[in-house]
């Protein structure tokens, strides 16, 4: 955490062809570091944490407003909330786990989806302009919650040996390759899976933020002399990337929850 | 340049895949709050309402079905009543016809009886008249015969004839003869 933290991704007077000799202030790892807003006994509270807490506040406030005084004949807000809720419940949980098995996991999946989605959306919100999920800690926490959930479910449902067999795809008919399969499956399911689950979300948001920052910074940096058309191209690319990011943000939230559901389904399945 | 190098050196120490502790804590708390609200409060709330709505819709359908069933039963009842009424009307008509026929027959019989009575009375009257006429005739004939015989004999035989009843006897004989030859 000792890289140079930046609040602004670029400096105002740094332009191409200007004679102050500065180069292109390319966004990099330093774009993901923030100076603490305040520090309490060594605990550095920064912008990302603030955004994470605002995310919580937003999600809880919105759904409290929508579902707090829910009516049989819904208002507009409740209708929007219900549409979102129904999308996760029917579109993801019931589709993968079925209505009977899945009902229990609806609260987890719904909160995962909306929490992740709003964390992602910060990427394009003016002033915030930073996806909370591009800091590995946040996806990691969520992936860990899912990991603990499906792992404990596996052992609860199949017992220790059965759970182990479930995790490793143990099947006697495999014969000689059985040890190999067991090792690979164990490695892939138990060790790699939570990592990929978290990193898939993190990396998408990380890359998205880099791209956005890149084009945004370049739009300003190129805005000089005969390079102005290039700045225009960069600006158009910024707009396109914002739209693309909006899409990716929703898709990544969807994929994260879909995978979580499929892991839970694997844990509940009779045979792996 | 030096600043850049420092930054590069610093970046080498930074690994974006190693989660920083404070963020882990904040992330956990942030998500826990969201999950807790959804789990304990908001989703039970909305599920209840969704269930109520489902029941309201299905209840409406059930009500409509019940109404339809009732309407059907009322219709059948009505039809049955109508059929019964028709049947009753037919029965009444039949009965009236029968009664009418009986009445006509009775009247006819009565008429017949009265006619016969009148006829019989007429016959009796005629017979009585005839008898009266016959008896009057017999008296007249007897009287005339006696008068005629008296004229022939030259003396009144009336008292004698009346006392002897000779003429009656004669006439009776005549009648008997007439009946015997008939």
TrEMBL record, chain B:
Locations listed in the record: Cell membrane
NCBIfam families: ATP_synt_b, PRK05759.1-3
Gene name of this polypeptide: atpF
Subunit structure: F-type ATPases have 2 components, F(1) - the catalytic core - and F(0) - the membrane proton channel. F(1) has five subunits: alpha(3), beta(3), gamma(1), delta(1), epsilon(1). F(0) has three main subunits: a(1), b(2) and c(10-14). The alpha and beta chains form an alternating ring which encloses part of the gamma chain. F(1) is attached to F(0) by a central stalk formed by the gamma and epsilon chains, while a peripheral stalk is formed by the delta and b chains.
Membrane topology: Single-pass membrane protein
Protein source organism: Streptomyces cylindrosporus
Coiled-coil features, chain-numbered ranges: 47-102
Listed SUPFAM superfamilies: F1F0 ATP synthase subunit B, membrane domain (SSF81573)
Chief subcellular location: membrane
Recorded family membership: Belongs to the ATPase B chain family.
Protein name, entry field: ATP synthase subunit b
One Pfam family hit: ATP-synt_B
UniProtKB keywords: ATP synthesis, Cell membrane, CF(0), Coiled coil, Hydrogen ion transport, Ion transport, Membrane, Transmembrane, Transmembrane helix, Transport
TM stretches of this protein: 24-43
Source taxonomy: Bacteria, Bacillati, Actinomycetota, Actinomycetes, Kitasatosporales
Record's function text: Component of the F(0) channel, it forms part of the peripheral stalk, linking F(1) to F(0). F(1)F(0) ATP synthase produces ATP from ADP in the presence of a proton or sodium gradient. F-type ATPases consist of two structural domains, F(1) containing the extramembraneous catalytic core and F(0) containing the membrane proton channel, linked together by a central stalk and a peripheral stalk. During catalysis, ATP synthesis in the catalytic domain of F(1) is coupled via a rotary mechanism of the central stalk subunits to proton translocation.
